[in-house]
Amino acid sequence: MTTPLTFPTGFLWGSATAAYQVEGAAWEDGRGACIWDTYARTPGMVHEGHNGDVACDHYHRYAEDVALMEKLNLGAYRFSVSMARVMPDGRTVNQAGLDFYRRLTDELLARGVVPWLTLYHWDLPQALQDEGGWPSRDTAYRFAEYAGAVHDALGDRIRFWTTLNEPWCSAFLGYAEGRHAPGVTDPVAALRAAHHLLLGHGLAMHELRARDADLSLGITLNFANITPADPEDAGDRDAARRIDGMSNRYFLDPLFRGAYSPDILEDQRSLWPDDLVVDGDLDLISAPMDVLGVNYYSGSTVRGVLPEEANAAADRARAAGQLTANVGSEHVEYVPQDVPHTGMGWEVRPQGLTELLLRLQQDYTGPAGVQLYVTENGAAYDDVPDDQGFVQDDERLDYVRTHLGAVHDAIEQGAQVQGYFLWSLLDNFEWAYGYDKRFGVVRVDYDTLTRVPKASARWYAAVAGSNRID
Ligand code: PNW
């Protein structure tokens, strides 16, 4: 890419975290157990039995962290609210939990950082899981009540509200693959969870809109650009269609078109519970949004395989760190590409982000007048700190630089992208990988909890401060 690249005036430069990954203070001020507390304590589920009890201790160190954001020229902070802090039993409001998010929000506003609130980033109260979790329709209603309670406490000071982060992960990693909490491996439960997550989104949208018509409301989805190994091969093209359906269209179509993708419904026909979708659900789910949050890390090249080869192909994909949570579309081979890989083993494919943003703009958000924000993008690498704890993380810096170039390309070609949130501000609890994988642009020493900005943070601060890449 040729530099400098200047971004549109007002482009929002931010960073993102999530409650369970950074807060710690897991048993303070009345917080209830969430499904990740339980999952992390289940032997064999999380790397070396790590959990979020302390994490980055952001719950106590939020003021220091917000000061750091200001120093790094960040214009916005995307954080999530822990439902288990606010409704420990899934029903009763815990004022002390809400108070924390008020303190955090006030600190952000005092330092000129726009608060960007996500209501659900995977930490369902265990009490609701015990009543059935997301496969149970009631959970959607509990979530909407929770959305209303959070708005009652923070609605006067926050403009940007996201209902769910990556419902695909909650539903398919959580209930089909079992690689995320609650660790269920039942494809039908996953389809139920996916629908009730969408319903919860729709009901929460309704609650929030009713309270304040001027909020900027939306959802964040994870996407992956999918390419057929051989575009001339009908089997490969069909594999790409199916995986694109599961990875990208599964939530987009109900949200923006009011209907599940017909081809995916067909693939899942033998599994789909016929009492799942109730009249009126899709109207709620497709209520107009203002913002679509785009999380992008990588893409995949796929090839069709015969159904009888499906299990072997899935095992190879799992061994290669690929995602295999493709209910109804298991007979696919992921074809590794000769490109650099991040510390997660994910292929570095920046151009996929340009293609994705343009496609979203053209097929979904543009016609609906919805603004795009990249709500997550970033990379884990094996950092090597010096004596001072400083990390010269050239690979991460380069990953962010090339992906920002891809965002810039998309904007030049007409995509309405209004901002970018780097994942993540801090090294944090990387779900099943525990503290083993580091995504932060700021290093966290987990013994002392000291924060030290890495080279990527210094570079990103310069970009955010000047609105351009030199
Ligand atoms: C996102 N995958 O999760 C989440 O929103 C973050 O909480 C997380 O830390 C970040 O990406 C990095 O992993 C994902 O397997 C988890 O494709 C897994 C996948 C994608 C996103």
TrEMBL record:
InterPro entries per the record?
A: GH, GH_1_N_CS, Glyco_hydro_1, Glyco_hydro_1_AS, Glyco_hydro_1_beta-glucosidase
Keyword tags: Carbohydrate metabolism, Cellulose degradation, Glycosidase, Hydrolase, Polysaccharide degradation
GO CC annotations, alphabetized? cytosol
The record's section on PROSITE patterns has: GLYCOSYL_HYDROL_F1_1, GLYCOSYL_HYDROL_F1_2
Domain of life, per UniProt, equals Bacteria
Catalytic activity annotation: Hydrolysis of terminal, non-reducing beta-D-glucosyl residues with release of beta-D-glucose
| Enzyme Commission code(s) on record | 3.2.1.21
* Molecular-function annotations in GO: beta-glucosidase activity
Q: Where does substrate bind?
A: 21, 121, 165, 297, 423, 430-431
Active site residues according to the UniProt entry:
166, 376
A Gene Ontology annotation in the biological process aspect, one of them, is: cellulose catabolic process
Q: Name one Pfam family in it.
A: Glyco_hydro_1
Transmembrane regions: none
Question: Which family, according to UniProt?
Answer: Belongs to the glycosyl hydrolase 1 family.
Family matches, as NCBIfam families? BGL
Recorded protein name is Beta-glucosidase
